Amino acid sequence: MLTIAHLKRGQRAIIKSFEVENVPLKLLEMGCLPGNEVMVVQQAPFRDPLYLNINGSHLAIRKETAALIEIELL
Amino acid sequence: MARQINVALIGNPNTGKTSVFNRLTGLNQQVGNYPGITVEKKQGICKLDRGLKAHIIDLPGTYSLNASSLDENVVIELLLNKNDKDFPDVAIVVADVENLKRNLLLFTQIKDLGIPTILAINMADRMKRKAISIDIKALEERLETKVVLVSSRKNEGFDSLKELVVNHTSLSTKPCVNASIIAPEYFERLRKAFPNQELYKLWLVITQDVNFGKLERGEVQGIATFQTKSKSNLKRLQQKETIARYQFINGVLKETLTIDTANAKDFRSRLDRVLTHKVWGYAIFFGILLLIFQAIFDWSSYPMDFIDASFAALSEWVKNTLPPGDFTNLLAEGIISGLGGIVIFIPQIAFLFLFIAILEESGYMSRVVFLMDRIMRRFGLSGKSVVPLVSGTACAIPAIMATRNIESWKERLITILVTPFTTCSARLPVYLIIIALVIPEERVLGIFSMQGLTLMFLYLLGFAAAIFSAWLLNKVLNIRSKTFFVVEMPNYKVPMFKNVAITVIEKTKSFVLGAGKIILAISIILWVLASYGPGDFNDASKIVTQDTASVNLSEEELETKIASFKLEHSYIGIMGKAIEPAVQPLGYDWKIGIAIVSSFAAREVFVGTLATIYSVGSEEEETIKNRMAAEVNPVLGTPRFNFASGVSLLLFYAFAMQCMSTLAVVKRETNSWKWPMWQLVVMSAIAYVVALGAYQFLK
After folding, report:
1. pTM of the predicted model, to two decimals?
2. Numbered residues of chain A with Cβ closer than 8 Å to any chain B Cβ
3. What digits encode the pLDDT tens for the residues B278-296?
4. CA torsion angle for B90, B96, B98, B100 (degrees, to 10)?
């Protein structure tokens, strides 16, 4: 399964799906929803956390959360 | 009397909501706490036209009405409770022009509650540069409310905003999104059971009860039976709701908002490339830390010396001017020196908050959180623990309050528990005087002063103790809490002077009033305990005069002798003698014992207590130092403060939990006495064992 954790810096993708239970509601509210576009803006050492642009919102999440969100490359 | 209406300012974090608040109220604002909790409550008054006054509440920033922290919960509590005296007649939702889509999510939720809601789009001054254009008229039509562009930086749009507030009764309260479409059957059942209630409000009550615990709202009885089958079911519905809202918002913005994306690649990404860089990012962060330390320890020493001298002079003046007696002594020795003990920390606290406010306002703090998260996580902390740990070098009290935005309870608790290990400014006077006494004034390699290196070592020791105990706690504490971590990375902004100044003033004020009360109370108690005593105490001058009759003492020497005899037989002296056996193995006598015990109120009391005990008239460091250097261990005949006992004392102060105010704040923040008591016992035990080991080894 390809997830946000696999994305390289600058790569764009579309969010496909995820288990709602595992992802914090706050992340959904910030625009992390199926169909929205996601891009990795920066990554900290060891690629964790990841600094993302999701649907125009800039936010950072940990790799473990990123690995739960399935994507489709653009 | 002018008619007053309630206005609530609501918005996402980083939308400049507080600058809008500052623009509307000026300095006409008040910061307090919500009853029972330590969430800051900011309110102010704004004069409007037609004799109307607006009572404005700046509610904590939140991304939605689904609370995940105490701060966010305050917003929902207020908006769901029509009987609250602060319930808004009109809400102003503040949005950031660059994040309109996400900001509108909260707007639709507020509007759906049936509250007249104005949308204030802030930072309008950025529109031109970012090539953003908004069709305000169309937006007003689609959202069925009034929309206004404001710029707090340029002070534009506020007259129109006030005008809209005056005319709030003409605003439509029609909902934007029909929430019941996410589960029609369920909502239909709800409607039948509670025909008089608004559906969306009921839904919020249910989700809130499940996610955040019971709210105190007697009005909707029996709603518990309407809770969904499981938490995950509920969350699925919430996701559906969020999607429905975004669909509405996307539809609205498609017609009303245009952004020329070619222009969007900019400053932000260039700055991010440097500030979050694998090497430069860290180098810059440590550079900034150095600058902060420099300010706190070097620059603030000038105003601190001035404050110290002024209070000493004031105390002297009171003593010489007022008629002698108990009251004058209490005023001069207890109250004034107690107040001085508080005021002296103002420069450091103000500098620290100045830096923190600038780093927060500029958007840089989120980058630090991003950079440090991975490293801190190894020790059971979060990237968000960096701010409290750094702030802890000034004072643990605001530092512990700054842990609130850590989402995971376990990470937050560990941060709270270990923060008092960092070397706070109250330890500094103790360190300085002991180092001056026992560390030789030599240089290593001809450049670094031994004393300076020792001080640096103590700071590093504090951080190391914090990090190590965090690691240990992470292994030991069996708390299951969802560790999720979502940090918004806001746009970079030049900090607004007015916002920074207000933050510095407010935080400093709350430190002085909050911690100050305790320090003042302790210094009065100490003064009383040291100034009164049973039996021999009251005959001090007679006894001492008799004892020293054979020796020819000057009047001054006699006074000194009497004072120190009095202290020995005062209540505090008796207490000191009682604990002497416990502190002797550490290399201390009863006098140091008293200084340590009184330091449990606040560490900085140490020097002052020793000054009183050694009956040195002034608190000037040089004289106390000389007096301390001359103090002899009567058994061994060696100086009392030698290398072994000095190091033992330094280590004791490095580890011991000696601060009542911190304990009180930990109690408030963890809502239980268990954790502060745990801190007090464990940290002090570590301090005792380490100091004991050091003394016995070096002796």
Report:
1. 0.83
2. 20-21, 24-31, 33, 41-42, 44-46, 48-49, 51, 55-62, 65
3. 999 999 998 998 888 777 7
4. -30
